[in-house]
Design goal:
MetI-like; MetI-like fold; mainly alpha; transmembrane helix; transmembrane; cell membrane; 14 helices; 0% strand
Length: 308
Amino acid sequence: METAAGYPRRKRRRDLLEQRRFLGPALLSPAIIFIVLLVGAPLGLSIYLSLTDATAGSLTGDFIGLDNFTSQWSDPNFRTAFRNTIVFTLLANAIIVVGASILAHFLIRPFRGKWFLRFLILLPWAAPVALSTIGFLWIFDSLFSVVNWVLKSLSLVDTFNPPQWLGDPTLALAAITTVHAWRLLPFATVIMIAGLASIPTEVNDAARVDGATGLKKLWYVTLPLQLPIATIAVLFGIVFTATDMAVVYILTRGGPFNSTQTLPMWAFQTGIGSGSLGAGAAIALYLLPVLALVTVLMLVFARRVEVT
């Protein structure tokens, strides 16, 4: 009797899941729960901490409103970190877009050893960030820098006063920008190659028939078709670069004299190093509206380009 009664119930459940209004939410719910637990909960906790005077050892504190945000805005170190984050993010992504475009156009051509060269270009993306950055720590070392050794051999720098790549504020910021561009270049190159591969051959044939070759074809045919996917590459590059802390932590730790601070690094040093959890959370949250605005603008731009 129980078996006969349970069969219709199981059949009703199967029929219910086959309906679109139930099947869609049922398939999406694991991803939504995952995002809420791993992204929403920490974000909510950060917003709460930024409005309190919480310190290390406790996840609670007295409510102080926006004091953490206003006090950090008047801090010179925070302003330096904010400016550096914008500058090196824009510079790194400009280098990435130009470099990835050149590499992608080169790598889609048939030549011997193409797959091996693609593998070598992808290696920086596959290597752990800490491992590759430690390699650059040696490359930019004040005493054993291989860059300085080459420059000295070519008599391009003073033998007794070589560049201090991580000791000079400007050179240190340039070194951090270089490492970020080197790390993200493979990812952008792969996206660009996918964009070029998605262009139908009929379009290239029609452009060739119309006499569009070389730079003319690149400007009027390839770039407009490649622009939406290039926008996605820039969007990911901005997010990855602006939120990364590992490269600055390993190379300079924000020095010399806080000249290479970035917002993630300054938030870590304030919130974890100094134990001011509320102030650290406020610094980290300064990035949120900026990145959200950039994301919305880029997606709207990509949608318009795709529609037109």
